[in-house]
């Protein structure tokens, strides 16, 4: 990278280019040799014992181990207490063994094919698992914590995750200058040059709420060193690189070269060198013998982010229940008042914003909330309880739809801002709301890493429009959906994805809920056993939660539940756009006060519910289309004949509540209505589950838009015509007569 800072250029010249600057004392040379011995003999040992296993050895760049150890020694000397690392597979086992100092037998036993998994989930290959280790740094005699983050095969994907976790550890220690916690990222040269997420991560380095105050990047550069055995040990590089590999095979290993040099200049004797090798080989052999006793693999031992005190000693949740998520009326009023105010003196806000704040005050007086105020209530309530809240994404401070306004800007003093949420109470947790760089992959990875540091924080990432999450797909697929199954690591990150078909074109419409639902692990065909704790145990078993709330109160509750649950799961929320200002989309304080709670299903409670046996049709739906349906039902005067029930938590599927709902209307048609196209939205997910509930005895008819390749039309008229068409079908009580299913 080009450096245009003169001071930085001078530093590099002084530290690296001054003649003789790389001179070492004899003691340092001996340490370097001993570390090279470990680096080299570790790979040799694995190659001898498991000659036909992939391990992605370091051979050809053994010097990486002494280099990393030197960086860590120096950092410890300068006051660093915690180093968080991310790296690809090459040399990873060696780093675990010789840098992090994972017990060798724990590494070796992973090569045993008979090893049984003791933990939940499917686990991961040995060269992906993470590790957390507190130890004494031998060079400085100071305590140091080292953490190597678990990562998927996707090269460089872990970079922003490491940075997010580093930022969080700095934040919670008050380490504003990055003097105590730092990160090291290792890269291969091809991945470093080619993967865009590297640059998305760099791009965060100077943003106040994202900077880690510097990262050490180590590039394992095959233009300088080489890969002795090709891509991995099962590879034959001579197939494709015959001449280069003839040269590589002639290379004398670096350990021999360096030992010969030190022996020749009298720094060590041949005998000392051989003893060093024999000593380490013995360590490996002894660990190998011990590794044979390990019959069971505990992935928990490979956790990179333990949460002390959050789980019980066996790593299980402390309970299997969740208290009601409502809060007291006084709290609601207080938060509403602060949300309507400018809590600092002589601060002039924009007239348009004054109107918004006045409207909030009016709502608070009338004991109602809209979407933005409900979110305020949830965030504010956490701050009182000491829970840090962080909201990150493009333009989140104001809100893409100009509804949030969490940061006020003085209209007369440049850059003077105020965050009322940080003025709620004298003693409160901090609220961080930060506009991110224009990145999804990098920023979502960062927030995921941030959320790993502590379970006592609500970390939310908001996409500008839900569509854009697909440029962060790797973080969603490889980390969020499957992270717990692979690495036993809980994460409570919240994704806020604006979603809704509003005639705004193929983009800006769909957050692609079908993709999240397709990756949900609840079984569509298995009828679950209902216990008293069904709701919470179902959440515990799932890989993530997908919700689409139709009321501000329910949005408030689902955010609150996220922290009140005794475990952490990623939460995907399809958030509204037009409903942010919809006059009907308001909730009373009555739905949020103490004793109230999140509603997974909101059953019909109008005329149809009072005489259920006369109901001809039950329409199940989720999200915004509910308001269209209710309006249309009224227009057509069908309030007695048609019940409309809302599914608020889509996954895990509320089998229990929907069963009750279905049984209530024995004579009715069952319809799933969605505004999305048939091949998107929720239909493919809900259909088999509804059918499981009714044991395949009743059909669940589809009402919605036809299948389509693009997520939405760009033509307003086409949008309105298709809306009209499916609303007509929804209320045509003969629509499915005579049809078979
Ligand atoms: C995103 C992604 N694309 C492709 C791959 C497949 N892959 C694994 S290693 C590798 C080569 C990496 O080369 P380099 O970064 O130079 O590191 P090296 O292993 O050569 O040290 C590739 C293409 C991958 N793991 N991740």
Q: Helices, strands, pairings?
A:
Layout lengths: L5 H12 L8 H24 L14 H14 L4 E5 L5 H9 L3 H5 L7 E2 L13 E7 L4 E7 L9 H16 L7 E8 H6 L1 H7 L12 E6 L21 H9 L3 H11 L5 H22 L4 E2 L31 H11 L11 H15 L2 E2 L1 H14 L3 E6 L14 E2 L7 E2 L12 E5 L5 H13 L3 E6 L10 H9 L1 H5 L6 E5 L14 H6 L15 H8 L3 E3 L4 H13 L6 E5 L11 E2 L12 E2 L4 H4 L6 E5 L3 H11 L6 E6 L1 E3 L3 H10 L4 E9 L5 H11 L7 E5 L10 H15 L11
Parallel strand pairs: 1-4, 1-5, 2-7, 5-6, 9-12, 9-13, 13-14, 14-16, 15-16, 19-20, 19-22, 22-23
Antiparallel strand pairs: 3-4, 8-17, 10-11, 15-21, 18-20
Helix pairs in contact: 2-3, 2-10, 2-11, 6-15, 8-15, 12-13, 12-14, 14-20, 15-16
This protein binds thiamine diphosphate.
Describe the model.
By secondary structure, this protein is α/β, with parallel strands linked by helices. Strands 12-9-13-14-16-15-21 form a seven-stranded mixed β-sheet. It has a five-stranded mixed β-sheet with strand order 3-4-1-5-6. Strands 18-20-19-22-23 form a five-stranded mixed β-sheet, with helices on both faces. A hairpin with a 4-residue loop joins strand 3 and strand 4. Helix 6 packs across helix 15 and helix 8 crosses helix 15. The chain is globular, with a radius of gyration of 30 Å. Thiamine diphosphate binds next to helix 7.
Quick tags:
741 residues; alpha/beta; 7-stranded mixed β-sheet; 23 strands; 38% helix; globular; binds thiamine diphosphate
Shape type: globular
- Please give the largest β-sheet: 7 strands, mixed
Strand order of the largest sheet: 12-9-13-14-16-15-21
Determine the strand fraction and express it as a percent band: 5-15%
**What separation lies between the terminal Cα atoms?**
62 Å
Number of helices: 25
Contiguous low-pLDDT stretches (5 residues minimum) are none
Structural class assignment = alpha/beta
Q: Give every kind of bound small molecule, once each.
A: thiamine diphosphate
* Radius of gyration, CA atoms, in whole angstroms: 30 Å
Helix share bin: 25-40%
How many strands? 23
Q: What average pLDDT do the residues reach?
A: 94
């Amino acid at each position: 990278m080009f450096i245009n800072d003169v001071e930085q250029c001078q530093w590099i010249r002084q530290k690296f280019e001054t003649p003789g600057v790389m001179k070492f004392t004899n003691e340092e040379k001996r340490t370097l040799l001993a570390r090279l011995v470990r680096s080299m003999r570790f790979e040799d040992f694995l190659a001898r014992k498991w000659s036909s296993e992939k391990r992605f050895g370091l051979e050809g760049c053994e010097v990486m181990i002494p280099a990393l150890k030197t960086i860590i020694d120096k950092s410890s000397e300068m006051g660093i207490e915690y180093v968080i690392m991310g790296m690809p597979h090459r040399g990873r086992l060696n780093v675990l063994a010789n840098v992090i100092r994972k017990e060798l037998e724990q590494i070796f036993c992973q090569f045993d094919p008979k090893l049984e998994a003791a933990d939940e989930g499917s686990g991961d290959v040995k060269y992906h698992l993470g590790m957390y280790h507190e130890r004494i740094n031998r060079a400085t005699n100071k305590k140091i914590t080292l953490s190597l983050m678990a990562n998927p095969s996707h090269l460089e994907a872990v970079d922003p995750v490491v940075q997010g976790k580093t930022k969080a550890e700095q934040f919670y220690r008050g380490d504003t200058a990055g003097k105590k916690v730092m990160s090291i990222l290792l890269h291969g040269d091809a991945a470093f040059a080619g993967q865009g997420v590297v640059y998305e991560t760099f791009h965060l380095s100077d943003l106040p709420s994202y900077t880690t105050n510097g990262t050490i990047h180590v590039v394992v550069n095959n233009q300088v060193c080489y890969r002795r055995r090709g891509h991995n040990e099962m590879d034959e590089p001579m197939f494709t690189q015959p001449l280069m590999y003839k040269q590589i095979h002639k290379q004398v290993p670096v350990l021999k070269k360096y030992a010969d040099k030190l022996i020749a200049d009298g720094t060590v004797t041949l005998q000392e060198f051989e003893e060093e090798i024999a000593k380490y080989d013995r360590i490996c052999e002894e660990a190998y013998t011990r590794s044979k006793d390990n019959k069971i693999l505990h992935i928990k031992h490979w956790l990179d982010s333990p949460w002390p005190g959050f789980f019980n000693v066996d790593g299980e949740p402390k309970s299997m229940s969740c208290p009601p998520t409502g809060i007291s009326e006084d709290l609601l009023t207080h938060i509403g008042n602060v949300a309507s105010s400018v809590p600092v003196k002589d601060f002039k806000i924009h007239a348009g914003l004054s109107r918004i704040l006045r409207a909030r005050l009016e709502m608070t007086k009338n004991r109602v909330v809209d979407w933005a105020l409900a979110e305020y209530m949830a965030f504010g309530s956490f701050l009182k309880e000491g829970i840090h809240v962080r909201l990150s994404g493009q333009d989140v401070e104001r809100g893409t739809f100009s509804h949030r306004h969490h940061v006020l800007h003085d209209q007369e003093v440049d850059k003077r801002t105020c965050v009322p949420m940080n003025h709620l109470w004298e003693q409160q947790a901090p609220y961080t709301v930060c506009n991110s760089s224009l990145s999804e992959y990098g920023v979502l990875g960062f927030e995921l890493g941030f959320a790993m540091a502590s379970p006592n924080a609500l970390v939310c990432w908001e996409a500008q429009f839900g569509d854009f999450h697909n440029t962060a797909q790797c973080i969603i697929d490889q980390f969020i959906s499957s992270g717990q199954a692979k690495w036993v690591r809980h994460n409570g990150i919240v994704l806020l994805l604006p979603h809704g078909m509003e005639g705004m074109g193929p983009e800006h419409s769909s957050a692609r809920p079908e993709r999240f639902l397709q990756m949900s692990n609840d079984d569509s065909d298995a009828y679950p056993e209902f216990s008293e704790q069904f709701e919470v145990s179902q959440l515990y078993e799932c890989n993530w939660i997908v919700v689409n709330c139709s009321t501000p109160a329910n949005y408030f509750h689902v955010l609150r539940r996220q922290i009140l649950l005794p475990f952490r799961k990623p939460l995907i929320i399809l958030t509204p756009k037009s409903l942010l200002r919809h006059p009907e989309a308001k909730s009373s304080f009555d739905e949020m006060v103490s004793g109230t709670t999140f509603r997974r299903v909101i059953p019909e409670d109008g005329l149809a519910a009072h005489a259920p046996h006369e109901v001809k049709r039950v329409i199940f739906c989720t999200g915004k289309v509910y308001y269209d349906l209710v309006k249309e039902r009224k227009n057509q005067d069908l309030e007695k004949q048609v019940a409309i029930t809302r599914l608020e938590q889509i996954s895990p599927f509320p089998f229990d509540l929907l069963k009750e709902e279905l049984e209530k209307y024995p004579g009715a048609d069952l319809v799933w209505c969605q505004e999305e196209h048939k091949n998107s939205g929720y239909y493919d997910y809900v259909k088999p589950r509804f059918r499981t509930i009714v044991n395949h005895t009743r059909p669940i008819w589809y009402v919605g838009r036809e299948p389509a390749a693009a997520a939405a039309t760009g033509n307003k008229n086409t949008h309105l015509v298709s809306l009209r068409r499916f609303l007509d079908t929804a209320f045509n009580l003969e629509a499915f007569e005579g049809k078979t299913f």
